[in-house]
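Researcher: Here's the sequence for the chain we discussed earlier.
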Amino acid sequence: MEADKKFVVRLATPADLDFALPIVAEMEASAKARGTGIAKREPAFIRAKILEGKAVIAFTANGIWAGFSYIQSWEQQRFVSNSGLIVSPAFRGMKVAAAIKQKIFELSRLLYPAAKLVSITTGLPVMKLNTRLGFEPVTYDQIPSDPQFWEGCKSCVNYPILVAKHHRNCLCTAMLFQPTV
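Model: Thanks. This is the structure I predict for it:
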């Protein structure tokens, strides 16, 4: 069965604030299990994204939390990152990530129509999802240079590589969607 028939993927609302703790816990557990990085976030950060209207959440038809993602803008809104994509392990392989990625892409385009959308990832499934949405691989000099952008990488096991390379490359693939505004 397709994700859109088993799951509800929608803009997160204040009613979803209590999910911030399980979201950050799953982000951290998932990163540890894969041995790769994902920006470690505090529950307060996730709650802020929800309250700002910059987050997407997924539930089963029965109301069980299934996944999440948020957006963040950089460099005076020239760039927007689609970040924190996480799917609860019980629902992986059910196209939930694709549905969340589509919805967060649409939200990014709605809120920031002129912005370049950026994604950095080591995960092949995310790279494939990004490619379907029109993202292309780019070099690091084409993504935000704002030091705050790289703060999220500090919790990644590969962060020492990024620093040693002066933020010019790392193990993540940088991907960019450029609007035709």
